[in-house]
Amino acid sequence: MTSQPKNWPEALELLQQTVSQxxxxxxKKAIERQHQKNRLTxxxxxxxxxxxxxxxxxxMTLAGFEMYQDVGGCPSGGTVAGIxxxxxxxxxxxxxxxxxxxxxxxxxxxxKVIRAQTIALENHIPVVYLVDSAGVYLPMQDEIFPDQDDFxxxxxxxxxxxxxxxxxxxxxxxNCVAGGAYLPVMCDTLIMTEGSGLYLAGPAxxxxxxxxxxxxxxxxxxxxxxxxxxxxxxxxxxxxxxIQRIRALAEMQxxxxxxxxxxxxxxxxxxxxxxxxxxxxxxxxxxxxNVREVLRALLDxxxxxxxxxxxxxxxxxxxxWLGGYPVGVVANDRQVIRxxxxxxxxxxxxxIEVGGVIYGDSADKSARFIMEVNQMGIPLIFLxxxxxxxxxxxxxxxxxxRKGAKMVNAVSNTVVPKITxxxxxxxxxxxxxxxxxxxxxxxxxxWPSAKYAVMSGNAAAKTLLDIQLQALKRQGQEPTDEDxxxxxxxxxxxxxxxxxxxxxxxxxxxxxxxxxxxxRERLIRTLxxxxxxxxxxxxxxxxxx
Length: 545
Prior knowledge:
Blueprint: H1 8-23, H2 28-36, H3 42-49, E1 57-59, E2 79-86, E3 89-96, H4 107-123, E4 127-133, H5 141-144, H6 152-163, E5 168-177, H7 182-185, E6 189-193, E7 197-199, H8 203-210, H9 216-220, H10 222-228, E8 234-236, H11 239-251, H12 260-263, H13 277-280, H14 291-298, E9 304-307, E10 315-322, E11 325-332, E12 337-340, E13 350-353, E14 357-358, H15 360-376, E15 380-386, E16 388-389, H16 393-397, H17 400-412, E17 418-427, H18 428-433, E18 443-446, E19 451-453, H19 457-474, H20 481-499, H21 501-506, E20 512-513, H22 519-530
Parallel strand pairs: 3-4, 4-5, 5-6, 5-7, 6-8, 11-15, 14-16, 15-17, 17-18, 17-19, 18-20
Antiparallel strand pairs: 1-2, 2-3, 9-10, 10-11, 12-13
Helix pairs in contact: 4-6, 15-17, 19-20
């Protein structure tokens, strides 16, 4: 992995370079081979599919980044996924990239497709699958095939979405073999282009299994499935014809539901504040800042109603409008705060509280606010720049674990759409309380300044160094100061690499790393994508008081 950027311009340039390289998929020669087959690439297909002049909000672009390098890598997980407008409505689009190992499924590919389907399921977003895949990457079949959240989960989610009435259209535009053949066939509508192949076993495997000699077209070509098996609903000449068919079918789909909060949408008002997010939030997290300034640059008219502003000040809770949609916001404040103590406490009447840390009162306040937002039935947005929960005697005596559990409970049981943006650190249990990946955010975005780990780099390096030092002493070794310094740098370098947001994005711990200046519009489109799903009843179960 490349060295860490030192400032925002370097970080944004590095992100752009990484994304541009990823967009090449298997490389220019592989793209040329795809064109020679009279087929478009995955991203070319998507560009033709979405409404002209609209934005494709790609998700999990950096899936597989710097993974599987011993077998040539798997850029973007060999699949392109994201949300685009088709006939004026958001659709989840999942397209195999045949330039990457013929579109074969790596472990990360299955995870990415499942995550995209899960987003569609939770938000009732209709789905288009553009299929061009050689099936499972056999050398890694043991990591792809058997487990609950492996390849088979794809078809499970197909069936679950169908049962909920979420439209699914599939177009086979190349290979579609083995278990992967079930994905398009389990959709509402199946389109297939001439020259494509759909079969459980290809000609070579058929010959090996039953001794039958047959070519690909005769075994599972478009004509076979359109005229003989009846599996295909529409046979199309080429990619562009198939795309036009998808658009025609999508235009006829009805939207069955619009959430009440989305029905309240009013005309958006641009923020009065023109503050650049990168001027407020430092890349390395070293700068304190007032998160209210971030809210003023994000929310409509720079206006919000702050909840309990003088209590639990290390977290800001507020109600506002974003793109005309009503939202609640839970945001870590990074200012140093002087907190008033109870008047009967002898000695000091105030104490210093560190920004980004969750204290007992801020956890209490946040839990109560999250419950109220659920009662209101409007979306929740978390702006996460959190060091963790406060530790120490005073904090334990104040019941930090009990109060933290209350906040985690409220986050866990939230039924309204909840969207997380990691703007800085996302450490330890603070990640959980601020709606980290384990808490099923509808969408989880990160800026290039995000750092995602159990603790900060320096703290982790010192802890790990101490563990290794004790191990060496047990072996009878007494390292010198130079040895310790070298070992510390090695440990810290490895940990810093794992703090890189691209490392998190590669493993799908975040849905996308986004540029700060795109945040407002991206979140508005994300709210629109969330607006078709019903909201269940809010319950918390046993609640700490």
